[in-house]
Amino acid sequence: MPLRDHFRPPLDDRTSWDGFHGQWPSMIVLALSKQLPGHYVAAPHIHLGSSIEIDVATYEWDDSNDPTSGQREEGGGLATAVWAPPAPTLAITTDLPDQDEYEVRVYDLRRGRQLVAAVEIVSPSNKDRPENRRAFVAKCAALLRNGVCVAILDLVTTRSANLQRELMEFIGQAEPPVDGWPPLYAVVNRWSKRGESGIFENWTQPLAIGQPLPILPLWIAGQIAVPLDLESCYEETCRILRIA
């Protein structure tokens, strides 16, 4: 079945692209769950907006660590001075760039739920401003540097930026492919150590409206890959959402 244009008429007059983006990761998870070895697990992850997620440990407070615990509001005696930090070197009014994340994460349970692969589905906001593109590319580069296989799926027809090209430039490999940088594409990237050398590899497939989507290898370990069947996941998503 053909790839639809979810960002232009007539389809975007009848259905929302973000509804499709929200459902597609779940269909990819269902497909991967049939392919992954038993100690791997896939999970969807959707995050909208500019807030930053971070894992925070929660501690029980110990009053002995409180710098104000030695102070006395009305009594005598010496009070512990509270350290006053210096003024900031720079303070400007600004907003963090909005970063929408539509992705699938694959974890290795034998290694303490270690992240081994990520499928990033590009949204319009990932491509609309330089700072958004830099944030997306930096995230992908950091994942690759930590041995995570990164797939990028770009179906956005209303923005011309190519995030794979910017990722290659970010890591110092700006040489374009033989056929140039396609406007729509699906690509799998991985970086690994081979002896004393680091090897960067990718598998790129151009996408086109009206054409089926490919099957790509999603690497979960050194020599272990599972098929990322984009076409079947895509069609199942369109069927569930009644996208013609």
Condensed summary:
With 244 residues, the chain is of the alpha+beta class. It has helices at residues 11-14, 17-33, 124-127, 130-145, 163-170, 230-240; strands at residues 40-47, 101-108, 114-121, 149-154, 185-194, 197-206, 215-221, 224-229. β5 and β6 (197-206) form a beta hairpin.
> Order of strands across the widest beta sheet?
1-2-3-4-5-6
The oligomerization state is single chain
Helix proportion range: 10-25%
Extract low-pLDDT stretches: 50-73
Number of domains: 1
Rg estimate, integer Å = 23 Å
Structural class: alpha+beta
Compressed to H and E, one letter per element, the order equals HHEEEHHEHEEEEH
Major sheet description: 6 strands, mixed
The total count of helices amounts to 6
Number of strands: 8
| Morphology | globular
Q: Assess the beta-strand content as a share of residues.
A: 25-35%
Span between N and C termini? 10 Å
Mean pLDDT: 84
Question: Can you give a write-up of this model?
Answer:
The radius of gyration is 23 Å and the shape is globular. The longest helix has 17 residues, at 17-33. It has a six-stranded mixed sheet, with helices on both faces. The chain is α+β, with helices and mostly antiparallel strands. It has one domain (11-49, 95-240). 25% of the residues lie in helices and 26% in strands. The protein has helices spanning 11-14, 17-33, 124-127, 130-145, 163-170, 230-240; strands at 40-47, 101-108, 114-121, 149-154, 185-194, 197-206, 215-221, 224-229. A hairpin with a 5-residue loop joins strand 2 and strand 3. It is built from six helices and eight strands; from the N terminus they run ααβββααβαββββα. It starts with 10 loop residues before the first helix and ends with a helix.
